Amino acid sequence: EVQLVESGGGLVKPGGSLRLSCAASGFTFSDAWMSWVRQAPGKGLEWVGRLKSKTDGGSTDYAAPVKGRFTISRDDSKNTLYLQMNSLKTEDTAVYYCTTHISSWLVSWGQGTLVTVSS
Amino acid sequence: DIQMTQSPSSLSASVGDRVTITCRASQSITNYLNWYQQKPGKAPNLLIYAASYLQSGVPSRFSGSGSGTAFTLTISSLQPEDFATYYCQQSYSTPVTFGQGTKLEIK
């Protein structure tokens, strides 16, 4: 069974940094493309970015609102995905979900971790 | 960026009703269209991928159709557990974009 467990959320001041982790199990993590999707309180889903598998080049793509501030990385030896978030803004407040792809659809999702950016 | 527009934004219906939700893309996305269901406090769940393929484990009362710019999600006979918010998502190009959601409520 696929499991994705996010951690690392919490309260951070504007301008601060936070690193989220996503521990994966139940599938071959090193072969998987992974994405982060967020959801602000009471709002819809917003794609944050994607990281391809190393065998597919390992490249990343980001949404415009986070490009240059957020970095997605992976440690295949630990079956873990990361989201490094710098220069955080109040509008980054959201639940952050880790997801895995089959082809181009997001087939499995973690339970999410809440990030609150507030002074 | 490709804009995804769902209609309606909210919908009231009764158990047993047939319901259709529409999703339109701002440009052709061929069949790179996926549908997700989200219940309050829970992560989204994939229902339909590639416009019309039912994800494993999803009840057959859910179906999807369309191609190009116009797509529909149909629930043939609403069940109590179907009251949730539904999102379409295009995966044709990055940035991946979602529709704004359709909240399906009990009448």
Core attributes:
heterodimer, A: 119 residues, mainly beta, 7-stranded mixed sheet, 4-stranded antiparallel sheet, 0% helix, globular, B: 107 residues
Helix and strand arrangement:
The complex is a heterodimer of chains A (119) and B (107).
Chain A: E1 3-7, E2 10-12, E3 18-25, E4 34-39, E5 45-51, E6 60-62, E7 70-75, E8 80-85, E9 94-102, E10 105-109, E11 113-117
Parallel strand pairs in A: 2-11
Antiparallel strand pairs in A: 1-3, 3-8, 4-5, 4-9, 5-6, 7-8, 9-10, 9-11
Chain B: E1 4-7, E2 10-13, E3 19-25, E4 33-38, E5 45-49, E6 53-54, E7 62-67, E8 70-75, E9 85-90, E10 97-98, E11 102-106
Parallel strand pairs in B: 2-11
Antiparallel strand pairs in B: 1-3, 3-8, 4-5, 4-9, 5-6, 7-8, 9-10, 9-11
Number of helices of chain B: 0
Radius of gyration of chain A: 13 Å
Q: H/E element string of chain B?
A: EEEEEEEEEEE
The protein's oligomeric status is: heterodimer
| Protein structure class of chain A | mainly beta
Low-confidence stretches of chain A: none
Q: Report the average pLDDT across residues of chain A.
A: 97
Give the helix proportion of chain B (percent range). Answer: under 10%
Percent of residues in helices of chain A comes to under 10%
**Pair with the most extensive interface?**
A-B, 22 and 25 residues
Structure annotation, total helices of chain A: 0
What's the N-to-C terminus distance of chain A? Answer: 40 Å
The stretches of 5 or more residues of chain B where confidence is low (pLDDT under 50) are none
Compact summary:
The complex is a heterodimer of chains A (119) and B (107). Chain A is mainly beta and 119 residues long. Chain A has strands spanning 3-7, 10-12, 18-25, 34-39, 45-51, 60-62, 70-75, 80-85, 94-102, 105-109, 113-117.
Q: Please, could you describe this protein's structure?
A:
The complex is a heterodimer of chains A (119) and B (107). With 119 residues, chain A is mainly beta. Chain A is built from no helices and 11 strands. The model of chain A has no long low-confidence stretch (mean pLDDT 97). The N and C termini of chain B lie far apart (36 Å). In chain B, 0% of the residues lie in helices and 50% in strands. In chain B, strands 2, 4, 5, 6, 9, 10 and 11 form a 7-stranded mixed sheet that branches. The mean pLDDT of chain B is 97. The chains are: A mainly beta (119), B mainly beta (107). At the A-B interface, β5 and β10 of A face β4, β5 and β10 of B.
